C-alpha cells in the first residue's frame, strides 16, 4: 500500500461526479493530474531528469551536457486526439536558469508525428503559457512531451497546471468483461466444490452444459437464480457442477448462450505451483542483493540501495532532519510494494505470514513440511539445510533488526517506523537507479511491537537451524517489547506520507496483544501471559467483517495462540473462537453469489480488498486445521474462485494464473506497460484489487461511481486498485500453501493411531517424555514410524524402546516394537534437552 490522501484531495476526488455533468459545456480535459495534486502519476520522465512534487509543482533536475532537446523529457502518454478538433495546451513553468524548451503534442512512438511543437522561453519567475492547434490525425497514443535537454549547464525545471483541452470528452470506460459465464479460470479440485456464476437478465433457472476440451457435453444441469448481487449490481445465477469429478484440461461451461473461458478439473498441481510462485515472489522484491537471472529468469537486476551511486542508501541512512543524531545501516529487507520504501509494520505482518506458512507444517494435520524445505523455493539459499521459506523471512527480519534504535541512544530498543525516499519517484525506476536521498522516520510503538512479535516467533522457529540467530531474535524481541511498554503511544502519523506510505496507526492495543502472544508462546513467561490475558483483545471478537491487516494485528496473535501449543488456561476457548470467527466468514461467503469472503460493514471495498479477502480465507483455513470440518476447506476453495476469475470483471487477480489475469500491476520494477524492455510482475503476484475509494487519478477518472467489484483497472498507473505488496502476497502464500496440502479435496486419510505425549520429567533443561501410541485402525502396522515436530527448542538425545532422529524440529521415532496390531499400544520414552522456553507437547503426530 503506497499512499494515503490528504483530506483536501479526498474532497477533490468527491467532486468528480459534479464536474462531469458540466463536461458538455466545457472543452474536455485530456490530461490526468496536471495539477500534481495526487503526486506524479501518470507523468513520466527520462532517467537523467528525476522529478518530484515540490510545493505542489512537478520539479525536475535537468542535467548539464546533453545535446538534443529530446535527451531529457517529461511527459504524459495515452493522450487521445481527434482529427479536425482544436486543442489548447496550457501550463505554468519556471526554470532556475533562463532556457528555451520544446512543448510538444505528438505521437508517443515513432515517427513521433508532431501536432504541436512550441518553444516557450522559461524564466526564473513562473509564467503561464498556452498554445492552440488543430489535430491532423486521430490517435489514442499521443503524448504531451516537454523536451528539456540540450543545455550546457544543469538547471531546475518546475511545471504546474498542465492542461490539454479540446476534442471529445474521454469516452466512458467500459471494462471488457468477456463471456458472462464466470469460472475459476485456473480450475477446480477434482473432488472439491465447483461453481460458476452466470450474469444474465433471466430470473428463472437456465440450462447449463459442461464440455470437455474436445467439445463433448459431459454434464448438464440447471442454474439457481441468486438475484441482484449487491457488490456488482449484476443479476446472477449459480451453476453447481461439483458432482462432476473427472480430471482434465480445457473444460468450458455454457449457459444463456455464453461460454466460459477454459479451465481445468484436478488442479492440485496448480496450487502446488502457486505455493512456490507466491513465496518465490519475495526474492525479486529483495533490496540490497543482486537478483540473479539464473534464479529468477527475466527478473535479474543490480542490487538496490547498497550505497552505490546514484543510490543514496541504505547503508548509512540519517534520520529525517532533527529526529536523531545517528545514522543506521538498514540494508536488505523487501521493497514493500510498487515503490522502493521499506516499512516495518507492513514487513511485520508479511514476515508473520511467511513464518506461519512454515509453522503450520508443525501444527496442522496433513501439512507438508517437505514442500517447504531447503531447495523448495527460487532463492539463493539452497543447500544450507534451512527451509527456504525461513531463509526468505530472515531477509526481512534482518532488516527489521537493523531498524532498531541502538543501545545508548534516545528511545533505545524502539524501532524506526520506516525508511524511504525523501520524495516520490516516478515509474519506471530500477531500485539501483533511484537517486533520492533515503531517510529514517521516527520510531513508532507499532513498528517496535511488529519487531517484538515477529522476532519472538522467529526465535522459536530458527532455534533448530541457527541458535545464535534465534538468541539474537529473542533478545531483540524482549528489548523491543520493553521499549514499547515504556513508550506506549508513539504513533505514526497520517501526514507522514511524502515519498512513501504513511502506514499510520493510532491504536496499538492490537499490536501489544500480538507481540505479547508471540513472546508468551515462545518463552512461556508469566509477564507475557499476563499481558495476553489482560488485553481487551483476548476476549473480543477479532474476526471483523473487514478482515485483518498491517494495521489490525490482534487476529494474528489469536490465530497463533490457537494453533501453536501453549499453556494458556483458556486455550480451548481461544481455539473455539477461531472456529466461530471462521463460521462468520463462511456465512459471508455463502451469502453472496460470487462467494466473496468479505463484507465490510460500510459496504465499501477497502484499498487492497483482495488482501483482506485472502486473510479471511486464511482464518477459514485455520478453522479447518483446528476442527477438521470439511465445510471450512470447501469454503477456502470456493473463496479462491472469486480471486481467480469468478467475479464481476471476469478477472483473475493473480498474475500467470487464468486466461484473463492481472499483469499490469503498479510497480517501478515490473513496468512492462510503460517500457516493453521491462518484465510484467512475476507469476504469483496478487493485485490489491477493487477499491471503492479509487484514489489514483486514472481510476478516479474512468471508474467514478463504480459498484465495489467494478472499482478496479489493470493499469500500472492505478496504484489504488492495482498495486502489489508484500502483505497481500504473504496472505496468498499462506492460503496457497494450505490449498496445495489438500490433494484433490477428497476424503481425508485418518491417522491409524492415537498418540499420548506426556512429560514425565522436566528439570534443569532436561526432559523425559512418555509417548504412547495406540493402533486405532483395523490393520496391523508393520515397520512403522512415529513422526512429529517440536514447536519449541526441544532436541531429542535418545529414545528408550526405539530409535529417534531429529532433523530441524522434526522428529522421527522407529519403535522397537515394529509390529503393532489393531488395538495394541506401545510406549516409547524420549530423553532430550530444551534450550529455553516452554517444553510444549507437539501438536500433531503421524504414524504408519
Ligand atoms: Ca499544483
Ligand atoms: Ca535453504
Ligand atoms: Ca493497530
From TrEMBL:
Record keywords: Carbohydrate metabolism, Cellulose degradation, Glycosidase, Hydrolase, Polysaccharide degradation, Signal
Known catalytic reactions: Endohydrolysis of (1->4)-beta-D-glucosidic linkages in cellulose, lichenin and cereal beta-D-glucans
Listed InterPro entries: 6-hairpin_glycosidase_sf, 6hp_glycosidase-like_sf, CBD2, CBM2/CBM3_carb-bd_dom_sf, CBM2_carb-bd_dom_sf, Cellulase_Ig-like, CenC_carb-bd, Galactose-bd-like_sf
Signal peptide: 1-22
Domain CBM2: 746-848
Top-tier EC class: hydrolase
Name of the featured protein: Endoglucanase
Amino acid at each position: 500500500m503506497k499512499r494515503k490522501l490528504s483530506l483536501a484531495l479526498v474532497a477533490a476526488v468527491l467532486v468528480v461526479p459534479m464536474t462531469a455533468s458540466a463536461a458538455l459545456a466545457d472543452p474536455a480535459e485530456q490530461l490526468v493530474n496536471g495539477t500534481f495534486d495526487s503526486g506524479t502519476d501518470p507523468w513520466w520522465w527520462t532517467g537523467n531528469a528525476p522529478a518530484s512534487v515540490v510545493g505542489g509543482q512537478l520539479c525536475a533536475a535537468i542535467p548539464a551536457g546533453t545535446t538534443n532537446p529530446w535527451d531529457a523529457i517529461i511527459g504524459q502518454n495515452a493522450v487521445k486526439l481527434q482529427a479536425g478538433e482544436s486543442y489548447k495546451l496550457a501550463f505554468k513553468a519556471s526554470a532556475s536558469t533562463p532556457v528555451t524548451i520544446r512543448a510538444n503534442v505528438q505521437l508517443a512512438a515513432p515517427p513521433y508525428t508532431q501536432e504541436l511543437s512550441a518553444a516557450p522561453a522559461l524564466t526564473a519567475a513562473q509564467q503561464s503559457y498556452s498554445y492552440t492547434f488543430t489535430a491532423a490525425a486521430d490517435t489514442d497514443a499521443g503524448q504531451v512531451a516537454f523536451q528539456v535537454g540540450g543545455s550546457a549547464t544543469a538547471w531546475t525545471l518546475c511545471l504546474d497546471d498542465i492542461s490539454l483541452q479540446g476534442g471529445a470528452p474521454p469516452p466512458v470506460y467500459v471494462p471488457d468483461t468477456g463471456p458472462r459465464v464466470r469460472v475459476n479460470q485456473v480450475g477446480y479440485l477434482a473432488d472439491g466444490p465447483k461453481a460458476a456464476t452466470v450474469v444474465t437478465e433471466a430470473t428463472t433457472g437456465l440450462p447449463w452444459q459442461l464440455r470437455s476440451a474436445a467439445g463433448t457435453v459431459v454434464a448438464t444441469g440447471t442454474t439457481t437464480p441468486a438475484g441482484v448481487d449487491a457488490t456488482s449490481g449484476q443479476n446472477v445465477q449459480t451453476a453447481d457442477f461439483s458432482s462432476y469429478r473427472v480430471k482434465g484440461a480445457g473444460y468450458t461451461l455454457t449457459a444463456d448462450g455464453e461460454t466460459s473461458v477454459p479451465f481445468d478439473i484436478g488442479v492440485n498441481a496448480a496450487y502446488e505451483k502457486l505455493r512456490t510462485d507466491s513465496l518465490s515472489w519475495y526474492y525479486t522484491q529483495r533490496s540490497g542483493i543482486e537478483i540473479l537471472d539464473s534464479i529468477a529468469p527475466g527478473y535479474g537486476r543490480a542490487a538496490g540501495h547498497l550505497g552505490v551511486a546514484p543510490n543514496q542508501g541504505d547503508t548509512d541512512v540519517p534520520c529525517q532532519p532533527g529526529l536523531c543524531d545517528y545514522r543506521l545501516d538498514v540494508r536488505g529487507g523487501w521493497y514493500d510494494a510498487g515503490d522502493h520504501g521499506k516499512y516495518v509494520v507492513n514487513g511485520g505482518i508479511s514476515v508473520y505470514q511467511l513464518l506461519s506458512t512454515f509453522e503450520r507444517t508443525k501444527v496442522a494435520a496433513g501439512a507438508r513440511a517437505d514442500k517447504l524445505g531447503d531447495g523448495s523455493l527460487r532463492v539463493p539459499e539452497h543447500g544450507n539445510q534451512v527451509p527456504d521459506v525461513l531463509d526468505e523471512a530472515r531477509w526481512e527480519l534482518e532488516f527489521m533488526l537493523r531498524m532498531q534504535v541502538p543501545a545508548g541512544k534516545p528511545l533505545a530498543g524502539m524501532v524506526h517506523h520506516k525508511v524511504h525516499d525523501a520524495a516520490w519517484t516516478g515509474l519506471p525506476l530500477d531500485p539501483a537507479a533511484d537517486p533520492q536521498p533515503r531517510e529514517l522516520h521516527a520510531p513508532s510503538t507499532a513498528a517496535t511491537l511488529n519487531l517484538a512479535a515477529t522476532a519472538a516467533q522467529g526465535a522459536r522457529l530458527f532455534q533448530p537451524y541457527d541458535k545464535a540467530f534465534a538468541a539474537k531474535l529473542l533478545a531483540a524481541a524482549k528489548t523491543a517489547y520493553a521499549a514499547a511498554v515504556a513508550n506506549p503511544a508513539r504513533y505514526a502519523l497520517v501526514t507522514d506520507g511524502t515519498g512513501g506510505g504513511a502506514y499510520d496507526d493510532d491504536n496499538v492495543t492490537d499490536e501489544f496483544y500480538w507481540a505479547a502472544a508471540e513472546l508468551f508462546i515462545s518463552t512461556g513467561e508469566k509477564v507475557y501471559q499476563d499481558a495476553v490475558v489482560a488485553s481487551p483483545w483476548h476476549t473480543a471478537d477479532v474476526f471483523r467483517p473487514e478482515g485483518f491487516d498491517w494495521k489490525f494485528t490482534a487476529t494474528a496473535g489469536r490465530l497463533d495462540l490457537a494453533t501453536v501449543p501453549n499453556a494458556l488456561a483458556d486455550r480451548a476457548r481461544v481455539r473455539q473462537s477461531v472456529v466461530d470467527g471462521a463460521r462468520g466468514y463462511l456465512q459471508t461467503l455463502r451469502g453472496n453469489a460470487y462467494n466473496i469472503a468479505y463484507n465490510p460493514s460500510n459496504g465499501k471495498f477497502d484499498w487492497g480488498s483482495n488482501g483482506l479477502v485472502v486473510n479471511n480465507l486464511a482464518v477459514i483455513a485455520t478453522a479447518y486445521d483446528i476442527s477438521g470440518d470439511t465445510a471450512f476447506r470447501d469454503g477456502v476453495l470456493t473463496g479462491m474462485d472469486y480471486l481467480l476469475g469468478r467475479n464481476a470483471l471476469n478477472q483473475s487477480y493473480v498474475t500467470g494464473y487464468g486466461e484473463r489475469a492481472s499483469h499490469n500491476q503498479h510497480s517501478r520494477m515490473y513496468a512492462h506497460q510503460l517500457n516493453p524492455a521491462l518484465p510484467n510482475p512475476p507469476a504469483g503476484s496478487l493485485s490489491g484489487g477493487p477499491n471503492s475509494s479509487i484514489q489514483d487519478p486514472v481510476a478516479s477518472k474512468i471508474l467514478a461511481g463504480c459498484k465495489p467489484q467494478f472499482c478496479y483497472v489493470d493499469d500500472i498507473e492505478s496504484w489504488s486498485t492495482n498495486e502489489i505488496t508484500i502483505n497481500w502476497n504473504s496472505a496468498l502464500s499462506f492460503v496457497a500453501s494450505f490449498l496445495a496440502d489438500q490433494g484433490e479435496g477428497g476424503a481425508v486419510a485418518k491417522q491409524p493411531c492415537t498418540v499420548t505425549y506426556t512429560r514425565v520429567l522436566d528439570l534443569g533443561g532436561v526432559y523425559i517424555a512418555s509417548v504412547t501410541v495406540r493402533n486405532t485402525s483395523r490393520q496391523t502396522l508393520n515397520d512403522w514410524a512415529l513422526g512429529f515436530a517440536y514447536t519449541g527448542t526441544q532436541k531429542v538425545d535418545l529414545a528408550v524402546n526405539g530409535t529417534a532422529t531429529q532433523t530441524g524440529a522434526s522428529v522421527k521415532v522407529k519403535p522397537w516394537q515394529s509390529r503393532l496390531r489393531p488395538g495394541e499400544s506401545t510406549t516409547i520414552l524420549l530423553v532430550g534437552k530444551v534450550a529455553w522456553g516452554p517444553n510444549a507437547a507437539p501438536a500433531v503426530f503421524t504414524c504408519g
